[in-house]
Design a protein that fits this description.
Blueprint (H helix, E strand, L loop, with lengths): L1 H8 L5 H21 L1 H10 L4 H21 L9 H18 L4 H21 L8 H19 L2 H12 L1 H24 L2
Helix pairs in contact: 2-3, 2-9, 4-5, 4-6, 6-7, 8-9
């Protein structure tokens, strides 16, 4: 567990590698969505209530939280490390068993919140200013993730709005590819 924690947070993923990963992910995911809308649109429509994806994502998120709690310096709270680990495991099981409504959306939101920290860590106090491309990305996914965890119906409504007009869908996918290209170019050329 400590190796995973160190990889993500201490010293963290280097800025250039993080930029390449984010850029490639944006380009590939949005590019595929642009080229294969007949596959992506039905998947997006069904995603908010998809338990088959939601449950594994919940497990990944709680495992990530467990690793953070187990490996971080707790200071004077080290005495409650084991009880909180048990609470994390119990809450994970409780979410899987009792939170059936929009579990995939909530899990994705939780994952986005968790993912923001390593992204911000990789760009912390680094030069050049173009690093702010991934800082902005991290804050957007964190805020969006918080809304999706607390009000998961928003994702369903956002998906419906995007899919209502083909023009919106295509514009969103093109914007994602363009942002990914900008991040990738900056990561390779400047970081």
């Amino acid at each position: 567990m400590q190796a995973i924690y160190d990889f993500l947070y201490d010293p963290g993923i280097p800025l250039q590698i993080m930029g390449i990963l984010i850029g490639l992910w944006l380009i590939l995911s949005h590019g595929f969505s642009l080229l294969k809308p007949e596959i992506v649109k039905p998947f997006l429509e069904k995603y908010p209530r998809n338990e088959q994806i939601g449950v594994p994502l919940v497990i990944v998120c709680f495992a990530w939280g467990f690793i953070i709690w187990s490996c971080m310096d707790l200071g004077e709270f080290f005495k409650i490390e084991k009880p909180v680990q048990m609470v994390i495991i119990g809450v994970c099981i409780g979410v899987i068993v009792y939170v059936k409504e929009f579990v995939a959306v909530r899990a994705l939101g939780f994952l986005m919140i968790l993912a923001a920290a390593p992204i911000l860590e990789s760009a912390f106090l680094k030069e050049p200013q173009t690093r702010l491309l991934i800082v902005a990305f991290a804050y957007v996914i964190a805020v969006k993730g918080m809304f999706w965890v607390g009000m998961p119906y928003l994702m369903r409504d956002q998906i419906k709005w995007v899919l209502a007009e083909d023009k919106r869908y295509r514009l969103g996918m093109i914007a994602g590819v363009a942002y990914g290209v900008a991040v990738l170019v900056c990561a390779i050329a400047f970081w």
